[in-house]
Protein 1
Amino acid sequence: MSAPVKKNDRLTVYIEDLTHDGNGVAKVEGYPLFIQGALPNETAQIHVLKTLKNYGFAKAVEIIKPSPDRVDAPCDYFQQCGGCQLQHLSYEGQLKWKENMVRNVMQRIGKINAPVLPVKGMKEPWHYRNKAQIPFSANEAGQAIAGFYKTKTHSIVDMERCLIQTGEADAILAGLKKELAAMGILPYNELSHEGMLRHVVIRTARATGEVMVVLVTKKKKFPQKEAAVAIIQKLLPNVTSIMQNINSNKTNVIFGDETVNLWGKDVIIDTIGDVRFEISARSFYQVNPEQTEVLYKQALDYADLQGDERVIDAYCGIGTISLFLAQKAKTVMGVEIVPQAIEDAKRNAALNGFTNTYFEAGPAEEVIPRWYREGKEADVLVVDPPRKGCDEALLNTILEQRPKRVVYVSCNPATLARDLRILEDGGYQTQEIQPVDMFPHSTHCEAVAWLELI
Ligand code: SAH
């Protein structure tokens, strides 16, 4: 097919769909154009930016007939920052779009006919992120700037506030930036590999109010540390932990290997439902704990535990779902590939006094078949794999061992649909799919699927 449009053409199109990047999709004689700034059901005048053989890119220059769900994006940085893709769509519009997206993907990719329920969204879809990781640098005049990386670049856009992170993060961002020069702390320069302060990470425990601030520095020797601690305490009187992480490498990775305590405790404690979690500077933890509770309650509901079930939690991370399930199950065995996460899971199980959990580090697709060979069977299997979905060997193990119920927590509807098809072909029936909005204003959507052996 040759492109029916060329670069710099202007034309008027009707927008049919929205991509994962938040771009509108229109078709010109069957040729798809991905259009920045346009929403489904809009008519827009567009400017063609680039054409390839099978598709092209354009940007909306005028919205001729706006979508009824269009709103003004409330954030000043929406156009430059890649963090949110859907702020120009009302929150109700976002939830409707996500519900349809999940339903369409289920049918198109998996031919899955189970009901897809309306997305469980947030009452207040702002300031939900409990972790902010803010890069610091200097502008041409040598003043400290801090904010976010401009979409697809490594240049920092200076920012005052972010509408999805917490007020604590905003306070540190603005306050530290102002005080840095007076303290004699040079922000890091990525090109010259000079300067001291690379990133500031702020972690907030929503349930307990504890706050950790981590200063990521180029060197361990940090003569201004007392001054920095004093400023942080002044900016955030409720801070409970101030840590320094040392990253001397020329790298995009935020953290280095060494973390030292500057003041207060080494960890903060948060709770999800009735389960307590210890969070250290670098430990993995869900970024939207309010919706995590919604998601995992749903998983627990679908697992329908009566107290005598043996449960396996595959891809268990720090054991968040496992410990939720352990409240109702006879035993829970969790497996996860990152050994550090398994250490966290064990610590959190002990912190909560669970004695019916067992955790092991390793690939789920190898560890679970071995458990079965050793006679460690499961009545209910929960999986929460990364975006690429379940490993085929794990799906085969499920089909061979036939646990009566499978609960599939997914961050990628496309691989969920693919895997549900495999499980349905092998004797399971999907009963229901509940999408949950973990990341308002982004195009991501999590979903929990409930399957029964038939
Ligand atoms: N349920 C977890 C998060 C799951 S995210 C929680 O609630 O915290 C997916 C997890 O799968 C990640 O922690 C990742 O490290 C892990 N993972 C990736 N590949 C894996 C594999 N082959 N076997 C086991 N775990 C794996």
Protein 2
Amino acid sequence: MSFVQFVVLAGGTGGARFLRGLRAAAPDADITAVVNTGDDVTMHGLRICPDLDTVVYTLGGGIDEERGWGRVGESWTVKEELAAYGADPDWFGLGDRDLATHLIRTRMLDAGYPLSAVTAALADRWRPGVTVLPMSDQRVETHVVVTDPETGRNQAIHFQEWWVRHRAALDASAFVQVGVDAARPAPGVTEAFAAADAILLAPSNPVVSIGTILGVPGLREALLASPARIVGLSPIVGGDVLRGMADRCLPVLGIEVSAEGVGRHYGARAAGGLLDAWLVHSGDTADVPGVDVVTVPLLMSSPEATAAMARAALDAAGV
Ligand code: FO1
């Protein structure tokens, strides 16, 4: 028996919620999520993969829905104890429940397992109902070039320091994906593209989530070699960013903060870009030459609304 197969490129909270909607819209489909790992970081000796964990926790029912990251019912004893020791960094919160995930991941990575195998092992507990793949088994970390307000000098800081510590308030001049040149798509990624009936770009950050995934050498080529249609969903709704701080990232690459701006950034597949179709929110307009622009509600305000949005993406993909 053959199932329809969908692949979704996804970042953290927005990507995870979209995947939940897609799973509801197509419960019998075989869904693969290719997840950004550029946000990954080592803190207190532990390897943390925020987007992978957000996807697995969200689909597995373990996410704190309000925060959009970390575990529901979390406690913070270890964080308080670390603070009592004056341990750095003090601006990044690891909850007690969440820590178990990072302890297991770090132990497995140290034992030599690749990140894809570690992710599969962690997902065994959460049963997300989709195959969750890191974009790459090789370590890739996004760094942000900012100007030090004290010295006036340019320096690169880890994405998490920029995002969480500085709430993206420091002006950035570039994003650098450290390690990306040596990266390859994780096992299963190119195979999933080749077998896909539809490929969807979740309404995730086009620069530091989707852009980072697409930067893995060979991944974009494998995506474009797929016979499936490629459909993107705009993360910009009514000229606004609904989640995250994409409005701080898009201008760094000269991309206008609008559904049209992001659509044009991805570009038409027929003209060397990515998209066959581009979904924008009702009331928004976008002229993206060579791309079928479809206008539908894109607010992930409830599971039903998100499932309808996913259904519209599949319709645009012709499945
Ligand atoms: N986001 C925060 O705003 N503050 C935190 O202290 C924080 C801790 C954290 C720990 C584990 C994890 O998986 C994610 C965490 N996040 C935190 C979210 C995350 O760093 C970012 O929102 C994403 O990387 C951007 O997608």
